[in-house]
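[User]
Um, tokens okay?
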Amino acid sequence: MIDIASNPYKADFPLLAAKPEIAFLDSGATAQRPACVLDAQRTFYETMNANPLRGLYSLSVEATEAIERVRAQIARLIGAVDDRGRALARDVVFTRNASESLNILAKCFAPCVLEPGDEVAITIMEHHSNLIPWQQACRAAGATLVYLYPETDGTLTDEEIAAKIGPRTKIVSAAHVSNVLGVENPIRKLADAVHAQGGYLVTDAAQSVPHMAVDVRALGVDFLAFSGHKALGPMGIGVLWGRHELLEMMPPMLTGGEMIDSVTEQDAVWAPVPEKFEAGTQDAAGIFATGAALTYLTETVGYDAVREREEALIAYAMERLATLPYVQIIGPAEASRHHGVISFNVEGIHPHDVASILDMSGVCVRAGHHCAQPLLTWLRVENLACCRASLAFYNDASDIDRFIDALGSVWSTFHGDN
């Protein structure tokens, strides 16, 4: 039994240690950073600050090697390895965030395969970052954007998958975990369905990598994207992984320094993958610190401990929320299906007011449409807005107790103590 009353992790996070008066329940938007990540970023600038790939002197070589070690670390993390278990680091591309990674695919990969009359299938649960780029790609290609609709609890049924993925489907792009409902989507089933039609599967793993082990080979995906800042790393670092032959066929989205092999007055030859997609100076310190974040997440804490603690926290939060008759949960009733996320509304009170009053009690939650307006429209959520409490392993029972007590204050503010 996990003891969520004690907390061996908060002391590792300087902001949480310095502000014990807050309950940070917005990790789905961005995670807090442990001290080792902050230290790593400073260490890079203090000990190896040089432009990677651009110099033959020792500092530049050391910076380059540091980035390449993180590239290999990420490949191993997501199961991008060959049959002998060696990391396929060349297939890991560094971007600014998951949004940029998905935009690269919509702007550079989609034109390689989409033709007029083709279809791209996504779920109605997608974050705008995995929706708007495909709207644009379909418009440019004369293709059609098709939506898969889950049950009201977030379940994507086999029948819906069979109905929406057919002979015209060239690309399916789906979140591994919904940022609003918290449900895990059946990525392997989606991959098998689109591969049977000769198409490709893209996965937005921004909400899964921070909470669970991800294996691109087991999932059967062709591309995967996630952001470092949701997985304890610094802001401004994203990852795009793709099957090598597909990355090879794609043109770059950005051009300029370090993404070329040779240049003449009228032409250029691109550098090999991944450099082809990494124009200009990378945030080398951020990449280095992302490596420290992933080491902390997977080795210091470990995914098993993350899963067990977060499951216990979610179960406790759902149990406490069930005692408040004025709170409506958006998504599945089962706590076990909420991967770090609980979305809710308070009856008759606008989510923005709820979040503002919670903040007065030091409780940090998100309120709004969560970059998922089509989902909230389809669910007929009033005001196209809801509140979202997103937990991480560094939370504890006291955070949830403060959250529940503060919701009582929200209700009494509008309705009195009775």
Summary: The chain has 14 helices and 15 strands.
